[in-house]
Each structure stands twice: as C-alpha cells, then as structure tokens.
C-alpha cells in the first residue's frame, strides 16, 4: 500500500478516545535487517465481533491486512483476515504477525501450532523468532492471450519486458496471484500503474493481485526481488506478501528450475517509499514433486492502537 508507516499510525490515532475503543496491536512482518516489513493489525478475542464489525475495524485501522484471532475447536486459534475493504481467505504477513504476537505474550509456547481458516487448517512453525506458514500447491493456470498485453500495459510495460520465454501465469497455493516474470530491474521499477486495469484483470481471474519479479535481487543473498499490486483488495502496493511469496516459489520450482529447498524473496525495495522486506520460503519435495511450502519471517511489535466502529 502506498502509505507510510507514519500516515498509517495517524489514521488509526484519529479514532482514539472515541467509544467503543478496540485495541489493534501493530506488528511489522517480514522485516529486513530489523527494519521495513509490512504492517499488520492483530485483534485478540475476536469471537465477540460479527463479520461486519471485523470489516469495520479493519477499515478503521487502515493497515494492508488485519488478523482477527478467535478460539478454535480444531486448531490452536482461528484466524480471519480483512483488508480495508474485503475479507480474504489467507494472509501470510498477518499470520506471521498474529502468531509472533501470540508467542511474545505467552499464549503460544510450542514450536508447532495450527491455525484454522475459512477454508481449512494450516500448520505454523515458530522457531528462533521466525514464524512460518504452511501453503499447499494447488494449480497453475494461463491467462487468455489478449490479456497478456493488458497486464503488461497496466504496469506501463511492453511484451518485450517479460523474461525471455516466459509469460504471466496464475499460481495458487491457497489463494491466486498472477506471477509476472520480468527481464530487468528497470522494468520492475516502473511506477506508472493502471490500478483500474489491474483490478479488472484480478476480478476476471479471481486474483488477490499481481506479483512481478526478476531474478536479479538487490541483496545478492536473496533469490529474487518482487513487487505486489492488489487494488481489488484496496492495496495499491504492498511491501511484503507471504502468500504471494509461496505462490512465486511454487512457480520458480515448477517453471524456472529452482530445484532447491529454500528460496529467499525480497519485496518493497522498489516501492516509491521503500519498505524493504525479506520472506523465507522452504520447500518440501517428495519424489521430485513439490508437496508443501512454508513461508516465514520475523515480526516486530509496534505500539497498540485503538479504533472506533461506533
């Protein structure tokens, strides 16, 4: 989202001292060298809120995503995720935020945990300050030929900006992103995006958003560098996206011969106001087939804020 951390905090602060006050804990997920990352809200004891109220809280908090933590009969906790304008099935950075916070306050004390979501349970690993979220490869899908040019134009790019021999492809490891392989960081850095066109393609193919990348990371200890655009969910650009990182890792394994057990993804480096992020994805392979991914990183606590939905 093209919004500084300061402006995000100011937006939330405008709601303080108005009743009823609802506490939203702020964490920055997938931080890089102790800085940057992606802000996520975490609301505990969320059983008391209706779906409509959760959406109102997420809108008032104005973070890219807010995680609502409730009791669960089938997992350690139930997590529901809301952007400012819509509920989504999964959110990597908000899951990292929620389980890191639960660990920090002593509500989770074990290494292996499970989250319940609206479409099933997912494993969580908490280790050495990192939180990792399970993703299961589902499918890849091509987009229609005429839409490829529309996609590139929406990013102010041309077809020859694609990596040679590759086209945009939908990847799904729980939710769908359009993976867009580019041939240069100059193309990745292009800032003129047609958000309405991105939204239209996202609506057509039921995508969370676009995930563009190159294999020329700024930090050479990383595998790729990326950008994510999701105006369909009220996110112009996001600095770290755990679910997209899993989708990209599946794509890299299957289509770009990244036959490895770990992929390190950087994001947020090319935002107009950079918020550098690092996402670590581990890959589980059986008989040459990718069967599971765990996307994770570090989440650092910030102040708790209060919002009003009255």
From the structure above, extract its key features.
310 residues, alpha+beta, Diaminopimelate Epimerase, Chain A, domain 1, 2 domains, eight-stranded mixed beta barrel, globular, disordered N terminus
Question: Topology of this structure?
Answer:
Layout: H1 5-13, E1 21-29, E2 38-43, H2 51-61, E3 65-70, E4 77-82, E5 87-88, H3 92-104, E6 112-117, E7 120-127, E8 130-135, E9 139-142, H4 145-154, E10 169-172, E11 176-181, H5 185-188, H6 195-205, E12 209-214, E13 224-230, E14 235-238, H7 242-255, E15 262-267, E16 277-286, E17 289-308
Parallel strand pairs: 2-3, 4-6, 11-12, 13-15
Antiparallel strand pairs: 1-2, 1-17, 3-4, 4-5, 6-7, 7-8, 8-17, 9-10, 10-11, 12-13, 13-14, 15-16, 16-17
Helix pairs in contact: 4-6
